[in-house]
Specification:
DUF7662; 33% helix; 30% strand; elongated
Length: 266
């Protein structure tokens, strides 16, 4: 969106522009997850902060530019936004639909991202780490996000569904010039948020970013028993290239990993 608001509120503006729901209720914590940063103290202390619609304030453009107005604020708890069009037309009856936002992770997402990784890995038998094995501190995750955002050849994308972090896709590139055209992918989505088109949108965003960076080969490895992931990747143009035999030991049984890649040279 091309609106002159502070950079920190642009993800929130994108969130509102992605929907036409008549009402949206967001917890303060959900708003901060969407933004990847904390709200200012004034947002917690003053009802009027949410009701401002005049300069020099600019934060309100995040929702007003998409046609929403704040109708109620429960201090330190939640905010209710109503689409003005729906509020003025009593004949409009529309159920709220899911709102999905994909954006790069920011350093403020560190705690939520580390918790999300551990949760997703604990729900599945298809990851390198099993339930409770992974130690991910907020500090370590924050360092990774900052380093990847600075180096320009790696990126973490977050999937935010209805104000909650529910998935991620990591694109890890290479510093070496001879391998700078390729990158590895790691993707994870919470079980209760799957089948919402999140994986497809994450891949779409990852491939678009990779093309901008001159990355033309994307690689991913999948456990041989993960038929859902294999079908999904084949559907999106990833081809099987080989097998890493007996790559993982799960409950004393050896499993192969399938190597897949997608090449798009322009």
């Amino acid at each position: 969106m091309n609106i002159k608001i502070e950079k920190k509120y642009i993800p929130l503006a994108n969130y509102f522009s992605a929907t036409k729901n008549p009402t949206i209720t967001l917890q303060f914590t959900e708003i901060e997850k969407i933004m990847g940063q904390s709200l200012p103290n004034a947002a917690y202390l003053s009802y009027s902060w949410w009701k401002k619609t005049k300069a020099p304030a600019k934060h309100y453009l995040a929702w007003t530019a998409a046609g929403y107005a704040v109708t109620h604020v429960e201090p330190k708890r939640y905010v209710i936004f109503v689409r003005i069009e729906a509020a003025n037309d009593k004949d409009i009856v529309k159920a709220n639909e899911n709102i999905l936002l994909i954006r790069p992770a920011a350093h403020g997402d560190a705690s939520s991202l580390s918790d999300l990784q551990k949760k997703i890995e604990g729900e599945s038998d298809f990851f390198l780490y099993g339930h409770g094995e992974r130690f991910l501190s907020t500090q370590k995750t924050r360092k990774q996000i900052i380093e990847w955002n600075q180096n320009g050849h790696s990126l973490i994308l977050l999937a935010i569904l209805n104000g909650q972090h529910v998935g991620y896709l990591m694109i890890e590139g290479y510093k070496a010039h001879r391998a700078s055209h390729r990158a590895g992918l790691r993707i994870g989505i919470q079980k209760d948020s799957q089948r919402n088109g999140i994986g497809s949108l994450l891949l779409q965003k990852a491939e678009a970013w990779s093309a901008e960076k001159g990355i033309h080969r994307l690689e991913v490895s999948v456990l041989e028993t993960n038929s859902t992931a294999l079908t999904f990747l084949h559907k999106h143009g990833y081809e099987s290239e080989g097998i890493r035999r007996k790559a993982l030991m799960i409950q004393q049984t050896a499993y192969d990993e399938i190597y897949l890649a997608k090449i798009s040279i322009t």
